[in-house]
């Protein structure tokens, strides 16, 4: 039960204020009307959290558990509003409890579940919202919530495996960067007088000149200016990447990367095929299923191509031909889709395609992770070797001259 503060007008035309307890804002308005009060303003009376306090982050793992629990409750016959009440009561994350309570109130006021979740797009991903929308339209909400939770759990396991494998290379990179900066800022300047005399005698090697220039920039006030410019440029770029145009540009460049581009495309195709197959298997019409699955691919370029293909399908084309014209989906996958359409097994083949892509992506990611560590060692060794050689080359030349 929630407590609402209200301002209402009674039969005598006077404004009255007070508080009322109800399940939702709609119930509060109805209760006031039963008391012959015309509500002018009804607001949640709970004190807002101070804006200076940091909000507790809602992790993907907590969202996964919440979706799985909601699926189990609905599958057991518990009504949606009661299920949301149970989730609000049992969650240990205050931020998530507040979000679920807001979703419950919106649903009680007549808003659909997917729209209520979309109001918290920073917590619920496009995939989750799209799957909930499909489940509501196809009357398989319990199954869509369960499949979404399983997919999020698979993503978390994959992310945890990659992060675990990247810990050592990241430590190497941080250590190498720190050592290099310390050498350039504190160690190289001690040789400036020696290098100045050697330069008067016959010049310095190019590597030593570049090393001294980098050391001077990092050790001078200009180094702070350069660092500030880099930080500001990074923040501006990060903000632009969250815009619609920035996301489209970033997704375009991601697909063009030499090795990682195929992995990014594989992830997007896997999500598209799995969700489209699931929607078709549950009776969702093809055009509607394409609209939902395109929004959950996680890649704006592929989503745009799918939307363009859907326009051709609505004019009588099959799925395979307009998808092939976009030039993004590999030919083997298009051949399997084309054959599946002819045999009326499209939904089963799409899920099989997603399973095959996932297996291939797991092998590619394992290979990439194994290659990162030696590549990082090679980069670190090259940088430190450059610094040492730039310091020692003038000494070697001076020794040769004296000899």
- The whole-number mean of residue pLDDT values reads 79
Low-confidence stretches: 48-55
Fraction of helical residues:
over 70%
Structural class: mainly alpha
Name of the CATH class of the largest domain: Mainly Alpha
The largest sheet has its strands arranged as: 2-1-3
Largest sheet: 3 strands, antiparallel
Number of strands: 3
* CATH fold description of the largest domain: Receptor-associated Protein
H/E element sequence: EEHEHHHHHHHHHHHHHHHH
Number of helices: 17
Range of strand content: 5-15%
CATH structural architecture of the largest domain: Up-down Bundle
**How far apart are the termini?**
92 Å
The Cα radius of gyration reads: 30 Å
Shape: extended
Features:
403 residues, Receptor-associated Protein, 3 strands, 6% strand, extended
How do the strands and helices of this protein lay out in sequence?
Blueprint: E1 2-9, E2 15-22, H1 25-34, E3 38-44, H2 60-75, H3 80-90, H4 94-108, H5 113-118, H6 126-138, H7 141-187, H8 192-202, H9 206-219, H10 221-241, H11 244-256, H12 260-281, H13 286-295, H14 300-313, H15 320-325, H16 331-342, H17 346-402
Antiparallel strand pairs: 1-2, 1-3
What does this structure look like?
The protein is built from 17 helices and 3 strands. It folds into 3 domains: 2-44; 60-154, Type II secretion system (T2SS), domain F (Receptor-associated Protein); 164-403, Up-down Bundle (Receptor-associated Protein). The longest helix has 57 residues, at 346-402. With 403 residues, it is mainly alpha-helical. The protein is extended and about 105 Å long. A hairpin with a 5-residue loop joins β1 (2-9) and β2. A 3-stranded antiparallel beta sheet has the order 2-1-3. α2 packs antiparallel against α7, α9 (206-219) packs across α10 (221-241) and α12 (260-281) runs antiparallel to α13. Helix content is 74%, strand content 6%.
